Amino acid sequence: MSSDENDSVQTEADPWQDDERLVEYFGAAWPQVEAFHRLLTDEGVLRGLVGPREVPRLWERHLLNSAAVVPFLPVTGRIVDIGSGAGLPGVVVAALRPEAEVVLLEPMERRIDWLNEVVETLGLSNAVVTRGRAEDLHGELRADAVTARAVAPLDRLYRWALPLLGKGGVLVALKGARAQDEVEAGARWAKKLGGGPAEVISASTIDGAEQTTVVRVVREAERGVR
């Protein structure tokens, strides 16, 4: 990247940065979410967890995008965020669901270090950082809900996530424009693993922000692949 490109990235403003509706939307979670935004803007970029060009889009495309999943999650119980990475959506979920235990599941050590620092800095007492892969924890880690963002196509995600859920547990995945195609491609795996019909939902947060595509699947029966 040239110095001119660097300057343009650094000087581009986030149109949501001083929008008072953010404070109202996040409510009691605002101090933690705002502090998380600062960490992502600074240390997140330095550590390569957030691209510099994403900084002016953090609120809309990352933090509000992550928050869009929360209404589809239980208020209590255990929520597992698969492939938590920089903490999206898991850290935002933990801030907005303080009565739930939120497991930030991540296999990479450098990201585990980051997540531990974030959890400590934000005082997220309900968040548990766990190193590992979902598929290696089947039968050990149980969840009432599983979240995932930009981790894998649904056919693979079903194989990782659904075995973590008991009957009635829910997988809520943040997806993009090809969500319906992924639903159709993964339908066989969802059925084999006890998943019910997938719902593709356009979720809103604040007026004017991009809608988020959410795929929601309830596990109707506990069974493995036959």
UniProtKB/TrEMBL annotation:
Pfam families for this protein: GidB
SUPFAM superfamilies: S-adenosyl-L-methionine-dependent methyltransferases (SSF53335)
Residues annotated for S-adenosyl-L-methionine binding in this entry: 83, 88, 134-135, 149
Major subcellular location class: cytoplasm
GO MF term set: methyltransferase activity
BP-aspect Gene Ontology terms: methylation
Top-level lineage group: Bacteria
Record EC number: 2.1.1.-
Enzyme class: transferase
Location(s), subcellular: Cytoplasm
Keywords in alphabetical order: Cytoplasm, Methyltransferase, rRNA processing, S-adenosyl-L-methionine, Transferase
Family per record: Belongs to the methyltransferase superfamily. RNA methyltransferase RsmG family.
PANTHER family linked: S-ADENOSYL-L-METHIONINE-DEPENDENT METHYLTRANSFERASES SUPERFAMILY PROTEIN
Function: Specifically methylates the N7 position of a guanine in 16S rRNA.
Name of the protein this chain belongs to: Ribosomal RNA small subunit methyltransferase G
Origin species: Cellulomonas chengniuliangii
Originating gene: rsmG
